[in-house]
């Protein structure tokens, strides 16, 4: 698509109005509308021309190899019009790879086909990621902080350091309290046996000595 000198002038004016919005003369507005209509018509004409060339290319491809020269010329023209190579075009070019023109077109079509495959994979990955994000239940999403509540439902967030203040030091751990042991200054409580000692039973008196009478 090529622009003439008058169309370029209108396009330049339209770009200036887009960058620096302001009041525009009525003549400039009309010129912009006419240029937009011309672009739409050119795009529609390009679509019709590409469809005609693709249909003509299919007829040449079906008549190969006798129409190799015309097929290669038409394929190059269709690629210039924005056509993307089809699997049938790649197969036909592989069959004609002995022709230098066919070999060059094969490399060009393979590069375009690889670009299309990467673009489709990127779109599928983006769509799969978007659907996975949309499928996450609302109960698992991160909760926003409420006044008087926690800012993090899974744990308290660390408060950022304020400028000019030293970071808070962790409190030192308290040593473990020693186990209570016997106090040497404290007298043990006496047992009942020590307070009331057991009395010994009284011993019976010894028998007085008996004197034998004489005779």
Structure in words:
The chain is mainly α and 215 residues long. It has a domain at 5-131. 53% of the residues lie in helices and 0% in strands. The protein has six helices and no strands. The protein has helices at 5-19, 26-62, 68-80, 87-95, 100-134, 192-195. α2 (26-62) runs antiparallel to α3. It is elongated, with a radius of gyration of 53 Å. The chain starts with a helix and ends in a 20-residue tail after the last helix.
Short description:
The chain has a domain at about 5-130.
Global outline: elongated
Mean pLDDT: 76
Q: Separation of termini?
A: 179 Å
Order of helices and strands: HHHHHH
In terms of per-residue confidence, which ranges show pLDDT below 50 for 5 or more consecutive residues? none
Structural class: mainly alpha
Number of separate helices: 6
Amount of beta strand: under 5%
Main β sheet profile: none
Count the strands? 0
Give the radius of gyration.
Answer: 53 Å
Helix content: 40-55%
Which helices and strands occur, and which strands form pairs?
Blueprint lengths: L4 H15 L6 H37 L5 H13 L6 H9 L4 H35 L57 H4 L20
Helix pairs in contact: 1-2, 2-3, 4-5
Structure characteristics:
215 residues, mainly alpha, 53% helix, elongated
């Amino acid at each position: 698509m090529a622009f003439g000198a008058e169309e370029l002038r209108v396009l330049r004016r339209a770009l200036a109005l887009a960058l620096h919005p302001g009041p525009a003369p009525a003549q400039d507005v009309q010129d912009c509308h006419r240029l937009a209509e011309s672009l739409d018509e050119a795009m529609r004409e390009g679509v019709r021309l590409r469809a005609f060339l693709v249909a003509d290319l299919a007829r040449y491809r079906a008549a190969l190899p006798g129409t190799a020269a015309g097929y290669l010329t038409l394929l190059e023209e269709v690629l210039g019009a924005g056509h993307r190579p089809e699997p049938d075009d790649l197969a036909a070019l592989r069959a004609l790879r002995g022709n230098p023109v066919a070999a060059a077109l094969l490399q060009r079509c393979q590069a375009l086909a690889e670009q299309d495959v990467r673009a489709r994979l990127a779109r599928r990955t983006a769509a799969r990621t978007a659907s996975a994000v949309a499928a996450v239940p609302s109960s698992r999403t991160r909760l926003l902080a409420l006044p008087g509540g926690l800012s993090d439902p899974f744990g308290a967030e660390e408060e950022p350091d304020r400028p000019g203040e030293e970071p808070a030091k962790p409190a030192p751990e308290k040593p473990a309290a020693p186990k209570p042991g016997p106090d040497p200054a404290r007298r043990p409580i006496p047992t009942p046996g020590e307070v009331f000692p057991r009395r010994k039973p009284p011993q019976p008196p010894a028998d007085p000595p008996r004197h034998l009478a004489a005779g």
